[in-house]
Amino acid sequence: MSGLFPRPRAVVAPGAVHVPEWLSPERQRELAAACREWARGPVPLRHTVLPGGGVMSVQTVCLGWHWQPYRYSLTADDVNGARVAEFPGWLADLGREALMEAYGDESPARTYAPDTALINFYDGAARMGMHQDKEERSGAPVVSLSIGDTCVFRFGNTENRGKPYTDVELASGDLFVFGGPSRFAFHGVPKVYPRTAGPATGMGRGRINLTLRETGLGTPDADWRQRRSREFPKSSR
After folding, report:
1. Backbone torsions φ then ψ of 106, nearest 5 degrees
2. Is the separation of the CB atoms in 45 and 39 below 8 Å?
3. What is the pLDDT of residue 3?
4. To pair with 160 at 20 to 30 A between CA atoms, which of 32, 134, 204, 206?
5. What is the mean pLDDT of residues 194-199?
6. Which parts of the chain fold into alpha helices (H)?
7. 34, exposed or middle or buried, with CB in 10 Å at 0-12, 13-18, 19+?
8. Residue 50: how many CB atoms within 10 A of its CB?
């Protein structure tokens, strides 16, 4: 868990970069408020039911495209049949900033065009098993932002769910990007540390993990690029 001393950025694996405290407290509060708004719908925050009948312990809401195991769709047919909230342009801009921060001059930020976000809420008991993000047709990097309680993020290999893997503590405001050789690495969250988020994060309890991805499926509507949600408040990252 984060403490009194600065945590250094780290290359966890080729293409996988951890940048601690990338989001300012103000930006964390703004994102937490936006996530609360998205959680109300049109497709609300819910526990995803797996094909075998199991129920995920995390709660999820999507933007742009609706994710359900193991595909994307325009409508949330497994929930209420509605279209999910639009993926806002300011969030894509934030994703490009994240790639520049993680990869520097070698960043694919100029061509990065995320069109979906999966927003997962973890209470103190929620976990995420080891899995690959492979429903996307694009191999563009995944941008992951953490707000709220600290968690153990287990980042593994591309071959199986077992070792070798590296456990990384992700605290509120942390950025984690994985692309290139690590794009399809297995990863999961075996533990959340309850009540580790300070009030400055805007989270009374729990953890939000917001991941940005390129689906490679094209834009949901022809006029998608002309439709923008409310402007993101101007503030420091």
Report:
1. -90, 10
2. yes
3. 57
4. 206
5. 91
6. 25-39, 89-103
7. buried
8. 11
| Residue 231 pLDDT > 60 | no
Q: What does pTM read for this prediction?
A: 0.91
Using CB atoms within 10 A of its CB, is residue 235 exposed (0-12), middle (13-18) or buried (19+)? exposed
Residue 40 makes CB contacts below 8 A (sequence gap 6+) with none
Q: How far apart are CA 33 and CA 56, in angstroms?
A: 24
How many residues belong to the chain?
Answer: 237
181 pLDDT above the threshold of 90 = yes
Query: In sequence order, what are the beta bridge partners of 71?
Result: 68
Residue 54 in tokens: 């199991």
Give yes or no for a contact between 100 and 177, defined as CB atoms under 8 angstroms apart.
no
Residue 70 zone, left/alpha/beta (φ > 0; ψ -120 to 50; rest):
beta
Extract the tokens encoding 185.
């690495």
The pLDDT value given to residue 222: 41
The pLDDT, as a whole number, for residue 229 is 35
Measure the CA–CA gap between 153 and 22, rounded to whole angstroms: 17
